[in-house]
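Quick note —
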Amino acid sequence: MIGFKQFIAEGKEGIGLTIWDIDETLFNTKARVYIVKDGEIVKKLANKTYNTYDLQPGESFDFREFKDAAHFRDTSEPIVKAIAKARAIHKNIMRKGSKMVIITARADFDNKEVFLDTFRKQGLDIDNIHIHRAGNLGHGKSAVQKRVVIKKLMAQQKYARVRLFDDDVSNLQMLKDLKSEYPDTDFEAYLAHPDGKMTKY
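Predicted structure written out below.
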């Protein structure tokens, strides 16, 4: 496990980008992805299962629960240690001109304010932390969608370092693989555990 103060430290000189995931990283969430075939729901997948599921012939995804802001608010359980880390990091980097964002594989919610209030109630300054909804790019693998968003952010600003907190190792590996395209940027990936601990990937 990485010590708390090490997360807060900024590392080498220059502007940094810190990225958080939502599901199973900041909140333990209950939303399920439905698998539909011939108009009928044939399976319900948890977030981790969805990340690796390959549609079979005739199947399609239904994301109704992932777009339901009230469902997110009412069923999500905050991961206290992770949220405390996020709050402390944000407070520290705001003083130094660095940036923190959230990138989720979800698309837009049906009620933006209900969704954001879930973060506000946990003391996260969400009005100054942009949430990028990578799911708006289409239904594909999370790592592919998040890579597109990260590259757009890096095209807008040169970052000395980029770090990602995520529960999905495919997303962490995607970040590490960006080193070949951005040799002057340091990339750090941290695996989020259910109890809020983070280990370097």
